């Protein structure tokens, strides 16, 4: 708050760079907190203590009323009520002899179950027994794992690091990686696979969704970036992919040569514009750029370089007017989405994790 007052004293400059909306941003921080950041004030106004430990992922419910947080310290899940900013459910899956490890997951539409891919560690007399990755169903009411099923050999390599969504009817789990794996939640068996390495009629190979599903803006549809290669000379390129969770229709449009890395995708509320961060080079030669894309034409319409960090995440204000660079640091950098110009750097006072950012009105 002191940082905020100092900026106000410097000619009220901060007021012009804050979003017009009054949204609240939730971000994970070390060692066991969620930060509550008010966009209208440009400051952290509170924190939420997570008794189960360090946050590793956050998932907003489709109705915007709950945030599902996974933690790594004790393999926990905590549910936050966005209106009251209170923890309404919390538990650890670990006990004296059994531990679990999982990275993220997704709740079902009713909020009763949480689906993920996990590994189980059981302590014996003289050794630990480690399971292969399994599909896991966590009952949020009973606060325990109630069903598991081993991943089939084709999915073992990903090890549960992909993104997840549940179909609108709650019957299927979609796991996004090199393939879209569709799991029947009644049996935890693979019902279908959409093999992105050989899409029909597309003339492409080696296609995969990005590591995060930040671009989900409407229930029942996924919009994300992908990487691909042509089947002849194997030139790598990237493009925009769209997937309907109800009809399972998948389409994508190549945009241009693939950079070394891309940091998520943020889509404006009206669905007309999208932003990502691309990184080329390493160490001293590393170069980071914002890329602004037109969603109607799937074309890059503007680029702007900005100072790189060793690790960071891309976020967006809820009205789509500001872009945020954050993570593995104590500050939040604010950029104007229209001009891609840096506007200000805000001191959060806490070291943020890679758990992501959730924006709530």
Quick tags:
361 residues; mainly beta; five-stranded antiparallel sheet; globular
Description:
- The chain is mainly β and 361 residues long.
- The protein has a domain at 198-316.
- The chain has two helices and 31 strands.
- It has helices at residues 2-9, 153-156; strands spanning 24-29, 33-38, 43-49, 55-60, 66-71, 76-81, 86-92, 98-102, 106-107, 113-123, 128-130, 134-139, 144-150, 163-166, 172-176, 180-184, 189-194, 205-209, 221-229, 236-244, 250-257, 261-262, 266-267, 273-280, 287-294, 299-306, 313-316, 322-326, 331-336, 342-347, 352-360.
- The strands form seven sheets. Strands 8, 9, 10, 11, 12 and 13 form a six-stranded antiparallel sheet that branches.
- Strand 16 (180-184) and strand 17 form a beta hairpin.
- The longest helix is centred in the first third of the chain and has 8 residues, at 2-9.
- It is globular and about 60 Å long.
- The two termini are 21 Å apart.
- 35% of the residues are buried.
- Mean pLDDT is 84; it is low at 1-15 and 197-217.
Indicate the topology:
Layout: H1 2-9, E1 24-29, E2 33-38, E3 43-49, E4 55-60, E5 66-71, E6 76-81, E7 86-92, E8 98-102, E9 106-107, E10 113-123, E11 128-130, E12 134-139, E13 144-150, H2 153-156, E14 163-166, E15 172-176, E16 180-184, E17 189-194, E18 205-209, E19 221-229, E20 236-244, E21 250-257, E22 261-262, E23 266-267, E24 273-280, E25 287-294, E26 299-306, E27 313-316, E28 322-326, E29 331-336, E30 342-347, E31 352-360
Antiparallel strand pairs: 1-2, 1-31, 2-3, 4-5, 5-6, 6-7, 8-10, 9-10, 10-11, 10-12, 12-13, 14-15, 15-16, 16-17, 18-19, 19-20, 20-21, 22-24, 23-24, 24-25, 25-26, 27-28, 28-29, 29-30
């Amino acid at each position: 708050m002191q940082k905020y007052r100092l900026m106000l004293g410097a000619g009220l400059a901060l007021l012009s760079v804050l979003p017009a909306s009054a949204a609240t941003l939730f971000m994970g921080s070390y060692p066991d907190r969620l930060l509550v950041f008010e966009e209208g004030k440009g400051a952290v106004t509170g924190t939420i203590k997570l008794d189960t430990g360090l946050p590793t992922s956050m998932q907003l419910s489709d109705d915007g009323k709950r945030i599902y947080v996974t933690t790594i310290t004790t393999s926990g899940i905590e549910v936050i009520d966005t209106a009251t900013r209170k923890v309404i459910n919390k538990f650890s899956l670990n006990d004296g002899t059994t531990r679990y490890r999982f990275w993220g997951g997704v709740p079902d539409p009713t909020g009763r179950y949480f689906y993920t891919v996990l590994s189980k560690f059981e302590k014996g007399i003289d050794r630990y027994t480690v399971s292969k990755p399994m599909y896991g169903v966590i009952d949020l009411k009973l606060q325990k794992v109630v069903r598991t099923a081993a991943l089939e050999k084709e999915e073992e390599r990903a090890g549960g690091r992909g993104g997840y969504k549940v179909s609108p009817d709650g019957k299927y789990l979609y796991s996004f990686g090199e393939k879209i794996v569709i799991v029947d939640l009644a049996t935890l068996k693979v019902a279908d696979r959409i093999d992105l390495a050989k899409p029909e009629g597309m003339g492409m190979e080696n296609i995969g969704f990005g590591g995060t599903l930040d671009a989900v803006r409407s229930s029942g549809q996924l919009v994300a970036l992908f990487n691909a290669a042509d089947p002849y000379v194997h030139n790598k390129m990237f493009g925009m992919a769209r997937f309907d969770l109800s009809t399972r229709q998948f389409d994508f449009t190549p945009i241009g040569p693939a950079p070394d890395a891309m940091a998520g995708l943020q889509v404006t509320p009206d669905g007309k514009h999208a932003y990502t961060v691309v990184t080329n080079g390493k160490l001293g030669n590393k170069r980071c750029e914002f890329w602004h894309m037109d969603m109607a034409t799937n074309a890059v319409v503007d680029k702007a370089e900005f100072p790189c960090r060793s690790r960071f995440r891309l976020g967006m204000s809820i009205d789509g007017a500001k872009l945020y660079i954050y993570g593995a640091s104590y500050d939040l950098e604010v950029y104007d989405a229209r001009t891609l110009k840096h506007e200000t750097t805000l001191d959060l006072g806490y070291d943020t994790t890679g758990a992501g950012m959730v924006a709530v009105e």
